[in-house]
């Protein structure tokens, strides 16, 4: 006869579903505000950040129609130095933040026209970017191909190492008393119309005053919630490579170098420890995370056109991850229409960049009930047609 086992139950103020960099920063900041906080994730510190290059590219990744997002991206970029210092102090770990700047270059007339347009948009938006000739680009970065036709020097777009960032956040959370449930959230629990935590795959029931959905591209799939409440996020596949620059070849690149080649962006992000990240494809292929010969070929081909010397470097890793894309490419931050249920997801191409500001605004709304003004344009309610009609 089997003994009847009562499911384990845990009670907290805040349950964060998802332990990627976004879930972790929300949990860390919430715990710092005195909230008893738990995270549910089978492998906290993983997620899209394990794959990401870590560019903090508010200016070089500016797109038409995304000026509202630009304000949030810039706000987060400005916080990075202080955020890094605080996190490194709290965790005792280096996060690999590097204030190295970015050079975006053009290889042919079409790329050059594209970059000129970007420069005009940057100038209209009051951003700092300087146009350079091909020769000036090569003077800055001698490994660039001789055919580079011009470029944009953006001294404010830096980088961090997302894997170290995730590790440091994990430690900071542990030191701040965050409880980790190393299991997947199987279903959200609603009680009298209010979110009340989740049941986990291992049978644990986590009862929470507030529940934060921060599961990246998986955020739209949690059982137990009405369809219209689920965040409209989708997986956007990115394949990425890691090369190693031997000491004998350093310095190879001194800043992030990027370009649009044949219509697709390619970037090379050099870390101080010799890692060189080459990314990334953008593919709408559902949940597929296969690394394909075609994806690797295209990345190497385009990166080689930019910096021919990469072919000498050891290729140490190929990986694919899923960005959490949203309908307007901007994140969903704050309360949903279900009382007690909040979202921090949909960060798409900007999850690492938006980590500091996401932690701050989510902790504020969790602790006080008030979503800071800078986050209001990113309320999840913008995707709820009924509520939009009512407020019209
Ligand atoms: N922000 C870079 C990428 O998503 O590939």
UniProtKB/TrEMBL annotation:
Pathway note: Cofactor biosynthesis; thiamine diphosphate biosynthesis
EC number: 1.4.3.19
UniProt domain FAD dependent oxidoreductase: residue ranges: 13-364
InterPro entries: FAD-dep_OxRdtase, FAD/NAD-bd_sf, Gly_oxidase_ThiO
GO BP term (any one): thiamine biosynthetic process
Keyword annotations of the record: Membrane, Oxidoreductase, Thiamine biosynthesis, Transmembrane, Transmembrane helix
SUPFAM superfamilies hit by this protein: FAD-linked reductases, C-terminal domain (SSF54373), FAD/NAD(P)-binding domain (SSF51905)
Superkingdom of origin organism: Bacteria
Record has RNA-binding as a keyword: no
Transmembrane segment boundaries: 12-31
One of the record's GO molecular function terms: flavin adenine dinucleotide binding
Catalytic activity, reaction form: glycine + O2 + H2O = glyoxylate + H2O2 + NH4(+)
Entry GO terms, CC: cytoplasm
Gene3D superfamilies: D-Amino Acid Oxidase, subunit A, domain 2, FAD/NAD(P)-binding domain
Coiled coil: none
PANTHER family listed in its UniProt record: GLYCINE OXIDASE (PTHR13847:SF289), SARCOSINE DEHYDROGENASE-RELATED (PTHR13847)
NCBIfam families linked: thiamin_ThiO
Name of the protein in its database record: glycine oxidase
